[in-house]
Amino acid sequence: MHMAFKAIPWLLLAQLLLQILKINAKVPAIFVFGDSSVDAGNNNQISTVLKSNFEPYGRDFFGGQPTGRFSNGRIPPDFIAEAFGVKPTIPAYLDPKYNIAEFATGVCFASAGTGYDNATSDVLSVIPLWKELENYKEYQKQLRAFLGDERANWVLSEALYLMSIGTNDFLENYYVVPGRSSHFSIEEYQHFLEGIAGNFITELYQLGARKISLGGLPPMGCLPLERTTNLFSRSDCVAEYNNVAKDFNKKLQGLVEKLNKELAGIRLVFSNPYDILLEMIEKPSSFGFKYAAVACCATGMFEMSYLCNEFNPLTCTDANEYVFWDSFHPTEKTNAIVADRVVKTTLAEFF
């Protein structure tokens, strides 16, 4: 009798959720894979130095709380989820505050500092991409137990899958750690990563995913950290890194075209943040920004994660004046602009 009584709220919750899912029939849920550009706080729960679950991170988030998002507020998947009418934020899969009822309409598996390459995730001891996929498989079982096979399978096939990853493979691995650069030319390494991306998307497809957005690289040579270390060019953007990003994005675009032909029923799109971000960096005032070469946090030149902390008196008072929050990650305002552009262009076909 006691067990039956306990089960009633869950049954009511499941029924209510089914009604919500029917309302958002075109995109009933959003699933996120990738790195710190989209990590909602999974790194909080693992042993790594790359965390952001402390102030001033999250100071402009709901309630002014640090969540593990590498920004002063929300990140692109949050804005995308809101635009699709799903929910205002996407929770992290490893966050113990949430359960399957909340995950049923979307969840983030991303891990800050990771990359396509397993060797990239080893650099800062974060979750490798293959493990993100294993966590997703585990989640599928939980969802089927919660919603039932038929409804869960429908959610999984109609959901929107967001991928944003790759910057760390170059800036934290290839150009910094001896290993890959001694075995691969830069173009060979790009092909290597492209192969991993293709295999990952194919596995997602085999697990039921049909609506997938593959994110490209930003103008990574213009990140404040890279500009700070580019002393010989008076702190201009590092042209080599930007060219690598553009070349890799072309390869990813080609991969999208290839997989759309090979995988029956897939709707794979390429979301490229490069141009809109470069536009903000080159013409900040056009978007209401004052600063694009330095970040809001601390000196804005090299700080991120634990170097960006509440005790630094130099941190700016208004993050909306800055394109970048820390030396590697955009502000909430920037994230909102990028997400809006992606929603109105690449993702528009999913409405």
Characterise the protein shown here.
With 351 residues, the protein is an alpha/beta fold. The protein has 13 helices and five strands. Helix 2 packs across helix 13, helix 5 crosses helix 6 and helix 9 runs parallel beside helix 11. It is globular. The N terminus is likely disordered. InterPro entries: GDSL, GDSL_lipolytic_enzyme, SGNH_hydro_sf, SGNH_plant_lipase-like. This is GDSL esterase/lipase.
Q: Briefly, what is this?
A:
This protein has about 350 residues and is α/β, with parallel strands linked by helices. The chain has helices at about 1-25, 75-85, 100-105, 120-125, 130-145, 150-160, 165-175, 180-185, 185-205, 225-230, 240-260, 275-280, 330-345; strands spanning about 30-35, 105-110, 160-165, 210-215, 265-270. Strands 2-1-3-4-5 form a 5-stranded parallel beta sheet, covered by helices on one side.
Structural class category: alpha/beta
What is the tally of helical segments?
Answer: 13
Order of SSEs: HEHHEHHHEHHHEHHEHH
Gross morphology is: globular
**Share of residues in helices:** 40-55%
Quaternary state, please? single chain
Count all strands and give the number: 5
Q: Give a quick account of the main beta sheet: strands, pairing sense, barrel closure.
A: 5 strands, parallel
GO molecular function, one term: hydrolase activity, acting on ester bonds
Signal peptide: 1-25
Family: Belongs to the 'GDSL' lipolytic enzyme family.
Protein name: GDSL esterase/lipase
